[in-house]
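Entry:
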Amino acid sequence: MNWLIIALIPPALFAASNHIDKYLVDRFMQTANPRTLLISTALIGVLLMPFIYAFHHGELFISPTDTALIILSGILFAVGFLPYLVALKTNEASAVAPLFQLSPVFAFALGYFLLGETLNAQQALGCLFIIAGAFFISLDFSGQRFHFKARALGLIALASFSLSLSAILFKFVTVHENFWVTSFWEYAGSGLVAAYWLLQRDIRTQFFGLIKRSPVRFAALNLTTDGLSVIGGLILRYATLLVPIALAWTMNGFLPFFVFLYGIILTRFLPAWGHETLTRRVLAQKFVAIALMIFGTYVINS
């Protein structure tokens, strides 16, 4: 299968997860610590570890150095979503998700210095269009005057750096190790983060309190969004093994399109599950920003 098709699947899955995360944050997390939501995200990977173990008949040994690096990758992956959830508390999903287009910038820099990966002039130009779109969509035109969403941009920049470094470490180890064995140890790293958070009494109380308050809905939504994130993450990790990491992450330029599309559908048909500002000014801004990102993606792959 062409790497481009593979790389387009994660943004569609992440976009759906993004809206579910926004719903969870609005309904359950306004007063709770965002780490309570990430506990289940980290633990779902742990649930996959026995299946990987059984599939490989217990042969999961890799060098101590690679083990340490990939566990660190899992820790960075789990922690990297914290700033993202904080940004979701005060911003629409369609305004937060596109800011993740800063990830290719970090991926390119880290890939160049740590893996020796480079982009040609055309690929770099396409990345610039996507980055321009990310900055443009971070402007708030909803009122009479616009202001720059600096805090949201800073939070997502922090998340993007953490997630990009996690991806770099994953590729660094996986190029000479088995994909699933590497994933096993990365899930172990995320599980350590979840265990650490559960050891904190206030976080543990909030987490089990949310489950007790709405066990079916909270559990179902968490399993859905975590499942989408894990599947999308695995596919994205696989895509990074086929092309430079910056290119694979840049293909998430389609993420804003899916997020905005899902947002319009929810606003029109399921407003209790999501709301997007759909004034003419805001629509024009988002369409222009998304067009820049999609055009950048086209330039990269033309």
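Residues 3-301 form one domain.
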